[in-house]
Amino acid sequence: MNYGMPDFIGEFWHYYIAIITVISIVGIIWFLKSQTTRKLAAGEQAELMAPTWDGDLQELNNPLPRWWLYMFYFLIVFSIAYLVLYPGLGKFAGSWSWTSADAYQQEKARVDAQFNAQFQPFLGMDLKAVAADPKAREMGERLFMAYCSTCHGTDGKGAKSSRLFPNLTDNEWLFGGGDPEAIKASIAYGRLGEMPALGDAVGGEAGAKELANYVLSLSGKPHDTNLAAAGRAKWAICAGCHGEDGKGNLAISAPDLTDQAWLYSGTESGIMETIVKGRKGGMPAQLEHLGEAKVHLLAGYVLSLSASK
After folding, report:
1. Residue 151 annotated as lining a ligand binding site
2. Is 241 known as a binding-site position?
3. 242 assigned to a ligand binding site
């Protein structure tokens, strides 16, 4: 999209681009005219450009057809008119001050107005009512397929990789415990969850192994008792975010480590990787992009997917 030339480029490049463009147009006009104005005198034979081949085939330097020249000149005039009306000469915005960004916003507003007429009736409904309404769920599903399925999957069950795309069909929630308004807030304003790399702070792989076994003990999973005891002494490094009891702090997206829900991996090796390398996940804000009505329908659909509805 044409958002205009960034300020940091400076005035030099504005004039450089504009001058090069103008010189190019003038040069094309001069070259075209210089190569097409000479006419053959009476009886003069056109210049032979290549030897005769295949018996009698010859390439002669005859003038170009007039219709072709007129079309070429028309395109030159068109390009000049375009540069006067639209941006193309450096920072010159054109007499119409058109930008693709404005055109996009106008088209988006037009399309949104059409679709919002269908979505608007559901905006005033309670999210649980939206989740229970068959028509609202159908519309929400189409929105989910268009905007959310790339990360969370077409079935909403997500994917686990170097970045987290959580399962939206279970009853485990990092934010808000499945509260409808919390789901809507996640979609509208986004979420950010980050675990810093602590490998050096805990003593490398050996320290991470001890701490991982202590974390396993918090959730009642099988663990090495001796390693967990050694990891308990290192827990102060983690308690600032996850709390002394390991139950986390949702205000800073630090998860509860005492339950059976794991964002990435609940194995010893997976927890060690999280401790040593850290994690960084996030949900981008969608309100500005989608608008209130679409966000409301999406929140209702996600709520309908969850087992906690």
Report:
1. yes
2. yes
3. yes
